[in-house]
Design brief:
Distance between the termini: 37 Å
Oligomer: single chain
Number of domains: 1
Helix content: 25-40%
Radius of gyration: 15 Å
Structural class: alpha/beta
CATH architecture: 3-Layer(aba) Sandwich
CATH topology: Rossmann fold
Order of helices and strands: EHEHEEHHEHEH
Strand content: 15-25%
Length: 183
C-alpha cells in the first residue's frame, strides 16, 4: 500500500506537481496521477509538457472506473499540487464531477490524508471558508510557501522545499535544509 494519488489542477505552479512526483519516485513511493484539463493548458503556458510526467499509473480525468474512485482501493492518500480555487471549492462542497474530485472525496471519506497545495493570492472570504470546510473534513491546506532560511539558490530549491514539506505530512521525509539544521 505504499502509493499516493497525485492530482494536478490548472492553478499556476505545474512545477509543484512535477516535483512531488519526482520526490515520491526518489523515495520509492508508487504514484497514481490524474490531471485536470486545465492543468494541461496551464502546463503549456508555463513551458511544461504534461505528457512527460512520470507516474506508475495515469488516469483520464473522466475515468470513474479507475481504482482511485473507490474507497476499497488502498493507498496512503492524495496530494493535489497545485490546487486551484475551483478544485478547493469542489472538494469543500463534495462536488465529484471528475475523477480527480472523486479521488479527493474518497480520501476524505476514508479518513486518509488529503493535502491541498493551494495556489491563489490574494484570498477572499469564500476561499478562506472553503479552506476551513476542507480542514474541518480532515483535509490539510498546505500552500507552497518558500523558506528563505534555507538560502535557496534556484527556483528548483524553492519548489523542492515546498514539495518536501507537503510530503512530510504523509510521513515521507525528503532531504531538505530544515529550521535549525544550520545552527
Amino acid at each position: 500500500m505504499n502509493r499516493i494519488i497525485v492530482g494536478i489542477t490548472g492553478a499556476s505552479g505545474f512545477i509543484y506537481g512535477r516535483k512531488v512526483l519526482e520526490l515520491l519516485h526518489e523515495a520509492g513511493v508508487k504514484t497514481e496521477l490524474v490531471l485536470s484539463d486545465s492543468a494541461k493548458y496551464t502546463a503549456a503556458l508555463e513551458g511544461e509538457d504534461p505528457y512527460s510526467l512520470k507516474a506508475d499509473k495515469v488516469y483520464s480525468i473522466n475515468d470513474f472506473t479507475a481504482p482511485i474512485a473507490s474507497g476499497s482501493y488502498k493507498n496512503l492518500g492524495m496530494i493535489i499540487a497545485p490546487c486551484s480555487m475551483r478544485t478547493l471549492a469542489c472538494v469543500a462542497t463534495g462536488n465529484c464531477d471528475t475523477l480527480l474530485l472523486r479521488a479527493a472525496d474518497v480520501a476524505l471519506k476514508e479518513r486518509r490524508r488529503l493535502v491541498l497545495m493551494t495556489r491563489e493570492s490574494p484570498l477572499h472570504a469564500g476561499h478562506l471558508k472553503n479552506m476551513l470546510a476542507v480542514t474541518e473534513m480532515g483535509g490539510i491546506i498546505a500552500p507552497p510557501v518558500p523558506a528563505f532560511y534555507s538560502k535557496p539558490e534556484s527556483i528548483d530549491d524553492i519548489v523542492r522545499f515546498s514539495a518536501a514539506r507537503a510530503l512530510d505530512l504523509f510521513g515521507i521525509e525528503i532531504d531538505i535544509d530544515r529550521w535549525g539544521d544550520n545552527k
